[in-house]
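URGENT: need a sanity check before tomorrow's submission.

F., can you look over the Protein YIPF record below? I want to be sure the sequence and structure line up before it goes out.
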Amino acid sequence: MAAADELTFHEFQEATDLLAEAPDAATTSRSDQLTPQGSVAVAVGLGDGFGGEGEAEESDTAALLQGEEKPQPGFWTFSYYQSFFDVDTVQVLDRIKGSLLPWPGTSFVRHRLHSRPDLYGPFWICATLAFVLAITGNLTLVLAQWRDPSIHYSPQFHKVTVASITIYCYTGLVPLALWGFLQWRRGIRERVGPYTFLETVCIYGYSLSVFIPTVVLWLIPVPWLQWLFGALALALSASCLVFTLWPVVREDTRLVAAALLSTVVLLHGLLALGCKLYFFQPLPLEHGAPPLQATNLPPTALPPSQPWPPTSS
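Structure tokens as predicted:
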């Protein structure tokens, strides 16, 4: 209590000195300020000039905290697409891991993307898959030539173009069709909430990452093992798509949901099957017809000589 009384005495003493120096000053009591029991907080205002700088500082701080909204860049500018590639290595590896290990009840968008889809991972996954397909397809033919020298091999560089067009068109057009269909179904059933187009592209891009090691394993010249690796890769990749799309389509009718998911799996299977049959087929054997060999026929076997030109009877 003695310390509180001494503090109160000093506060009143300072207020008295200020009032003596400026008789026109106003005193106010701030009830919302925490003060010791039995003491009164006195605030002294020395005209309009006192506290002016504080008000200016407060207004500047509020302006900085609020900030001015920057205009969004147009889609034709580089800054617009720069945000789609704003992702680090840890995030990309985590999303690839999520696509390789799908789990029921785990949404890839919710647990991996966190509403921040990117195009960096899908772009390089598709590019890597296209080059690996073309390279391993050529290596398969080289290995076949080593086993059978009668096979004639020539580098097939056009496979790089075919693989790139196929992969990028699939990753762009199929998500576009899926997103458009879900938008149409949303207009019919309001509870159907589709992902954004960028999220759909991101899902498809990361789902293809499992095919990169699978294509390398297809170099093993064992047909049944190649088909087994392809089936496992297709199962993992399609499961990632189905588990991610199920929370969106489950609010629709059972028929539409089943047809949509079946179509997604079917298109994914056709992509894997087409890559297997086109890029990993051996070259046809180019056995030339054996040349005709002249043999010594007996004189009796030779046909009788006729005059030339033949005479008409």
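My own read: The mean pLDDT is 75. The longest strand covers residues 26-29. If you see anything odd, call me.
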